Amino acid sequence: MKLVLASQSPRRRELLGRLGLEFTTKASQVDESAFSAATPEELVKTLAREKARWVAQREAEDAIVIGADTVVVLDGDVLGKPGSPEQAREMLRRLSGRVHQVYTGVSVCQGDFTVTQAEVTQVRFRPLTEEEIHCYVRSGEPMDKAGAYGLQGLGVLLVEGVEGDYTNVVGLPVCRLGQILLQFGIDCLALAAR
């Protein structure tokens, strides 16, 4: 069995690696801007599925491909990756002292069989000062992350609480993925016990 992660995200690679599975990575070339949906949940499910299918079409037919997509949502607005330091500062100002949602779609496909689901986690930011926002943006960490922060890095200093799956906020809801992989004959706990 060949397992492929349709992502070059170091965070997703690390999370999947914790399960003890052998896998390769291959980034999809899906144009994310070409897709829209009525809800954030439908958007991340669509993008995760398209990423997984794009890679699956270029792999052996029996390959199992995992795709994922994450967005940050505040007041119904999807906050993607910031395009500039000023956009990052503006996102962080909006998130300061507020609760927002992180949605991740995860899709697993093998041949014509595809299972796609989404996870949502509530994240509460503490109130931030302008100096804290400035320092965090200067660190460079916000620039390649949805919502302009990374919970697995310095962004942990901004977050007061998480309700739900922590790994979802990092970019790959591992508990949900483990349940999906069971449908493909992969039992991560049984494999770990060998």
Total helices: the number is 7
Largest sheet: 7 strands, mixed
Rg over C-alpha atoms, rounded to the nearest angstrom: 17 Å
Distance N terminus to C terminus?
A: 17 Å
Uncertain regions: pLDDT < 50 for 5+ in a row?
A: none
Indicate the multimeric state.
single chain
Structural class label: alpha/beta
Number of strands: 7
Shape: globular
Taking all residues together, what is the mean pLDDT? 95
SSE topology string: EHEHEEHEEHEHHH
> What proportion of the residues form beta strands (DSSP E)?
25-35%
The helix content, as a percent range, equals: 25-40%
Describe the structure.
The protein is 33% helix and 25% strand. Helix 3 (85-95) packs across helix 4 (130-138). Strand 1 (3-5), helix 1 and strand 2 (24-25) form a beta-alpha-beta unit. The model has no long low-confidence stretch (mean pLDDT 95). Strands 1, 2, 3, 4, 5, 6 and 7 form a 7-stranded mixed sheet that branches. The chain is globular. It has 194 residues and is α/β, with parallel strands linked by helices.
